[in-house]
Amino acid sequence: MPLTAYDLTGRTAFVTGAASGIGRASAVLLAEAGATVHCADRDTQGLHETATLIKAAGGTAHIHTLDVSDRAQVDEAVATAAAATGRLDVMAAIAGIMHNSPVLETLDEDLDRVLNINFKGVLYACQAAARAMIAANASATANADSDSVESRHPGSIITMASGAVDTGGPGLLCYGAAKAAVVQLTKTLATEVGPHGIRVNAVAPGWIRTPMTDRHDTDAQAHTEGLMVRMSPLGRVGEPEDIAHAVLHLASDASAFTTGQILRPNGGVAMPW
Ligand code: NAI
Question: What is the pLDDT of residues 16-48, one digit of tens each?
Fold first, then answer.
């Protein structure tokens, strides 16, 4: 397959969680591949920093300050992004939070907060994206010749799961349950929008060094990173760019026959705890 399979020139991407870590690295890489990237997050300052990186790399960025757990805000931002170019080719639903509490100490408000952001936030993004992609494809089919870019690239939706879906671990109830729900959403939606040509895949990273993992207390972080390095055949932890490349692969035509899958860039190990 030619390398042009990774070329996203002329396409529109929407990335949540784009103000930091994996979302930022993914937004920058998608822009470097040629996409116009709509960066969404609740951190406006971080969004501006990401947009600056994209522009410095010669790309095009737009920013949307929003809370992914607010359906109306997500709907409005995705509709605005799709309306700007008349299309939406890629949704990367990456925003998420970490939460750690033992099962016996987990409160309703913990569960609600994590599910609202890490599961419903992904669900809202997927729903808005799938609707925009289906509408753009219908319009392209009605108005354009069969070789139009729109008719050849119906859309790719990427969700962010975690290695936590493959293993239990102390404190992982809320986070792991939300990520398991993301996996179920991914597989279910893939079966429902496949007939439109739209692909839906999840990325389940291992331990990646980002501001999220940096917020762990130092001892826990050193323990987990040490475990990861020992367990990984590659002997290192992941960097945001490792995951961004997985996102680019799933966003691009290089993965044209891949849907309903969980891609595990984890250095060769399951998530350690
Ligand atoms: P991060 O903390 O660096 O970035 C997360 C971004 O999501 C932040 O910019 C934050 O402002 C945004 N965000 C959080 N809640 C939001 C909300 N309600 N509305 C809008 N934006 C919101 O974290 P990182 O590590 O880049 O994580 C990104 C995704 O990757 C998350 O879904 C995380 O669960 C997942 N992941 C991360 C792993 C890691 O080791 N870092 C491992 C496996 C999965």
Answer: 999 999 999 999 999 999 999 999 999 999 999
What local confidence, expressed as pLDDT, does residue 150 receive?
A: 46
Structure tokens at 183: 């996996």
CA-163 nearest atom, ligand 1: 43
Say whether 175 is catalytic: yes
C-beta of residue 28 within 8 angstroms of C-beta of residue 241 = no
Angle at 129 between CA 200 and CA 127, to 5 degrees: 85
Ligand 1 centroid to Cα of residue 81, in Å, is 21
Q: Which domains are seen in the chain, by residue range?
A: 4-263 (3.40.50.720)
Nearest atom within ligand 1 for CA of residue 215: 2
Which of 68, 175, 176, 240 is flagged as catalytic? 175
The whole-model pTM stands at 0.96
End-to-end CA distance of the chain: 39
